[in-house]
Amino acid sequence: MKITLVTPAPAQIHTGNRTTADRWARLLRELGNEVDVQRDWNEEQCDLLIALHARHSFAAMRRFREKHRRAPLILALTGTDIYGDLEKGAEAMRSLDLATRIVVLQELAVRAVPESARGKVSVIYQSAERPAISPPREEGCFQVCVLAHVRRVKDPLRAAYAVRELPASSKIQVKHAGALLDPEFQGQVEGEQRTNLRYHWLGPLTHEKAVDLLARSHLLALTSHLEGGANVVSEAIAACTPVISSLIPGSVGILGKEYTGYFPVGDSGALREQLQKAESNDGFYRDLQDRVARLRPLVGADREREAWSALLTELR
Q1: Between vectors from CA 295 to CA 279 and to CA 291, what angle results, nearest 5°?
Q2: Which residues sit opposite 49 in a β-bridge?
Q3: What is d(CA 126, CA 24) in angstroms, rounded to the nearest whole number?
Q4: What architecture does CATH give domain 2-126+300-315?
Q5: How is the chain split into domains, by residue range?
Q6: Helix axes 231-239, 207-216, angle to 10 degrees
Q7: 238-279, pLDDT tens digit by residue?
Q8: Distance, CA of 314 to CA of 220 (rounded, Å)
Q9: Within 13 Å, how many C-alpha atoms sit on residue 291's CB side?
Q10: How far apart are CA 12 and CA 159, in angstroms?
Q11: Most distant pair of Cα atoms in the chain: their distance
Q12: What per-residue string of b and e applies to 63-79 under the rule 16 or more CB within 10 Å gives b?
């Protein structure tokens, strides 16, 4: 099958959508398909269009459907579209109608899809590769990593705010990797670096270096206001790095309702308490490790590949 995969994310910056698109392209090629990843559909011939993000890819989906009334079209709901655009955006809602099938990244996302479209929905959890050799955790500090581009939706400085008032006895250090995508945050990031000795912004890293940072950290802090189903959570599970996450459906749908490492969105004090508890309470930290380790089969590449294979079989 000849597949065009459309993502609005540029190749130069590894956003979550770009990481998803590149991984899906690889898995689909492994299944014997010819796959082309583009930012838009330019009316090239293909047997199937896969579009990431209901609003950003709406124009490509509409043109494709006008040219190919009966051809299969898969829409992947990846984040700000499912938690935001569907509630207020006509284009996002129209994308659901245009799609033959809809892919979401975790089970709770099904509830966010209008009931009239739920029959089209498949849940495909994002996979991540386990490190070939697990590097040792950082010594000399309790390292918390934040892997998030500096955008408002990521609440990117929440971990920095949370560690401002830690007692001197704490060894927590925050390492933040991500590109500055919202210029309004530049002054805040630079100011935090000057005044907060526990916060270190590393700027954008390659995917390989970001995963290495994750594997060497004691915790991943995910502070987003919303996520469709973050790649970085799958990568943390693969690396057996516990997660402290804002209490959002995109994380609960992966980590589970019984997971104990959540904090209310935007609550610096609650996040600080969770970080301190992980640093000082061995039982709590081991429980987080055990829960993450048990989720490893969920993020296996074979599972994700088989899910795509089943979906394509239905469309043939």
Answers
A1: 35
A2: 4, 73
A3: 9
A4: 3-Layer(aba) Sandwich (3.40)
A5: 2-126+300-315, 142-298
A6: 50
A7: 999 999 999 999 999 999 999 999 999 999 999 999 999 999
A8: 37
A9: 19
A10: 26
A11: 65
A12: ebbeebeeebbbbbbbb
Q: Please indicate whether the domains covering 2-126+300-315 and 142-298 agree at the CATH topology level.
A: yes
Q: How many helices (DSSP H) and strands (DSSP E) are in the chain?
A: 13, 12
Rg (CA), the chain: 20
The two structure tokens encoding residue 10: 């540029």
d(CA 312, CA 49): 12
5 closest CA partner among 80, 15, 19, 230: 19
The one-letter amino acid at 41: W
Bridge-based pairing of strands 243-246 and 121-123 is unpaired
Question: Helices 90-98 and 58-67, interaxial angle, to 10°?
Answer: 40
Q: Does CATH place domain 142-298 in 3.40.50.620?
A: no
Instruction: State pLDDT tens for residues 152-184.
Output: 999 999 999 999 999 999 999 999 999 999 999
